[in-house]
Design goal:
The complex is a heterodimer of chains A (about 240) and B (about 325). Chain A is of the alpha/beta class and about 240 residues long. Helix content of chain A is about 30%, strand content about 20%. Chain A has 6 helices and 7 strands. Chain A has helices spanning about 5-20, 35-55, 80-90, 100-105, 130-140, 210-215, and strands at about 125, 150-155, 165-170, 180-185, 195-205, 215-225, 235. A 5-stranded mixed beta barrel of chain A has the order 2-3-4-6-5. In chain A, α1 (about 5-20) packs antiparallel against α2 (about 35-55) and α1 packs parallel to α3. The two termini of chain A are about 40 Å apart. Chain B is mainly α and about 325 residues long. Chain B is built from 17 helices and no strands. In chain B, α6 runs parallel beside α8 and α14 packs antiparallel against α15 (about 275-285). Classes of the chains: A alpha/beta (about 240), B mainly alpha (about 325). At the A-B interface, α1, α2, α3 and α4 of A face α2, α3, α4, α11 and α14 of B.
Chain lengths: ~240, ~325
């Protein structure tokens, strides 16, 4: 690979990073806190590539544009940098959904002690799925029974009937994703997997039927379910 | 259809690589619909998402790493390291290992920095101790570990002690038995006659292209293993104490999770003993498929073949000893 090609690659990679991190697309892959580092890294790469193209131009630089050996400036493996660039610009892989959730069986983090603060005000009370699950499982559902909750997630199939309200939880990037599931009972209706829905309902204990794979699963008895647009941040982080 | 045929070596075919790149871009743009249609199944999409995620997550740290390695090449005189590091490699190893705490970030940043150190004349054993310790004992990672294991500060201490210990032991072993031929000196662009800013720019660009390609290899491997290794088998091995340690150490190699996030994954593997999870945390930042690829790219394949198994064994041993002592 000659120097010009390497420099164009720098610009392409930087451009792809900028492309996803200027809007919300990067949230499909990493947590929101990485936006500034991504913008800086993308801008740095574009700048580095442009500057190098300009400085190494045969007309003005001191270095030959073609080194003839193919490895003085990057080497053959650098071509692989085109793969994430193509993936981002051509395929734009979607956020993880029901397929990844169904494969996730790892049980969730048990907190050190059950010292949950009182539930905040709100009727219905909007709550993250992982907090709903944590309070149900690790705090024995204390003070939850007389409240109305509003939960948002996508649908995954439940073996044996019904469906789960599901969110993917990531701590750094989509490679460390785990799923949190809430079983929906009551007036649940039926939805196709990966449909985003908002459930308003009441806490209704735990389901132990898949204890071996998933551990106990918290239940919400739905008063109403409606289809919604996917939220800006697809994951709980 | 051969829309994504791999580019052939431009030097041998006498076709300029810029021409190859241009043709490739045109082909891909024209064939966009065709290519996108190949990525419709849920399994393939999940794979692509994880692949892009691994690359995107690592890139800011890789950029930070190559900027630092470029700065070392351009602005730090070789005499500086000779002055701050003990001349005897055996004494330099622990100093360099402890210095790893100064580089915040994850493992992708430390590989180019270690390459830059060796190119600047630092003893390989010392640079390798730095390479191993830095992603595991820097403050960002330790804080993440404390957050992931609330109420268990001994887990943070155990991670620090076991990681630094493993890094120093590997450094000492390398200083004792390592041979110069095993480690290919990192290739550097010729910067003679360039001013400092130019040397910085040329080194950073060169190091990024080199390490970036290998990062992609690691991302491809990690995504494949992540999506296609069934996680259910974990529950089977969790019951056996010794099997569990080996299994989680191996899992750390295969999953290649960033060291800033691995504590959260370890915390969620609650069916395993704390010692087994410590092994996961000690091995992960030192040996994984992405790192092996990056190291092979920076220091040569012969190096990676010797260094990775050595590090794996030492890291597991350190985790078991420290786990028995502290946890």
């Amino acid at each position: 690979m000659n120097r010009d090609t390497g420099n164009v690659l720098l610009i392409l990679v930087g451009g792809a990073i900028l492309r996803i991190s200027v809007g919300d697309t990067f949230l499909r892959y990493v947590r929101g806190g990485l936006q500034i580092p991504l913008l800086l890294a993308g801008a740095t790469l574009v700048l580095l590539g442009l500057l190098s193209l300009w400085r190494e131009n045969p007309g003005r630089g001191r270095q030959p544009a073609e080194d003839g050996h193919g490895h003085a400036h990057g080497n053959r493996v650098a071509w692989l940098l085109l793969l994430p660039v193509f993936a981002i610009f051509l395929i734009a892989p979607p956020a993880l959904g029901s397929y990844a959730a169904d494969r996730s069986t790892v049980s969730r983090v048990p907190p050190a002690a059950s010292n949950y603060p009182p539930l905040p005000a709100g009727d219905p009370l909007a709550m993250r799925l992982d907090e709903y699950e944590a309070r149900a499982v690790w705090d024995a559902g204390r003070n939850m029974s007389d409240r109305t909750f509003k939960l948002i997630g996508f649908v995954t199939e439940r073996p044996g009937g019904g469906y789960y309200l599901t969110r993917i939880v990531i701590s750094c990037c989509a490679a460390d994703a785990t799923a949190v599931r809430i079983q929906v009972t009551g007036t649940a209706g039926s939805y196709r997997p990966d449909t985003w829905i908002e459930v308003v309902g009441h806490y209704d204990g735990l389901d132990h039927s898949r204890e071996k794979d998933l551990g106990p699963v918290a239940i919400v008895r739905a008063d109403s379910v409606r289809q919604i647009d996917p939220p800006r941040e697809p994951y709980e982080t | 259809m051969t829309v994504t045929a791999p580019p052939r070596s431009p030097s041998r075919t006498r076709v300029g690589s810029t021409a190859v790149l241009t043709v490739l871009l045109v082909v891909v743009l024209v064939g966009q619909r065709f290519i996108a249609d190949r990525f419709q199944s849920a399994a393939v999409q999940t794979w692509a998402t994880v692949f892009v995620a691994v690359c995107v997550q690592a890139l800011p740290f890789l950029v930070l790493g190559v900027l630092i390695s470029g700065a070392i090449a351009a602005f730090v005189p070789p005499a500086f390291f000779a002055r701050v590091l003990p001349r005897n490699p055996f004494a330099a190893v622990p100093v360099a290992g402890a210095a790893g705490a100064l580089l915040p970030g994850c493992e992708c940043a430390s590989v180019p920095v270690a390459g830059g150190l060796i190119a600047r004349g630092v003893a390989p054993a010392a640079a390798l101790a730095f390479l191993l310790s830095s992603p595991a004992i820097n403050p960002v990672v330790l804080v993440a570990t404390a957050v992931a294991f609330p109420g268990r500060p001994e887990m943070v201490a155990a991670r620090f002690v076991a990681s630094l210990g493993a890094a120093v032991v590997v450094g000492w072993i390398w200083a004792r038995v390592g041979q110069a031929g095993w480690l290919r000196a990192p290739r550097r662009p010729d910067t003679t006659g360039l001013n400092r800013a130019e040397a910085f720019r040329a080194t950073a660009a060169h190091d990024f292209l080199q390490a970036g390609g290998f990062l992609v290899v690691g991302g491809l491997t990690a995504a494949t293993l992540n999506v296609f290794v069934p996680k259910g088998i974990l529950n089977v091995v969790a019951q056996h104490q010794w099997l569990a340690v080996g299994a989680l150490a191996l899992l750390a190699v295969l999953l290649a999770i960033c060291s800033e996030a691995d504590a959260f994954v370890a915390a969620s593997l609650s069916q395993f003993s704390l010692t087994a999870r410590l092994a996961f945390l000690v091995v992960g930042p030192m040996v994984d498929v992405k790192l092996i690829s990056l190291q092979a790219g920076t220091f040569g394949r012969g190096f990676a073949l010797r260094f990775a198994p050595l590090t794996f064994v030492v890291a597991v041993a350190c985790a078991v000893v420290v786990g028995w002592w502290l946890l």
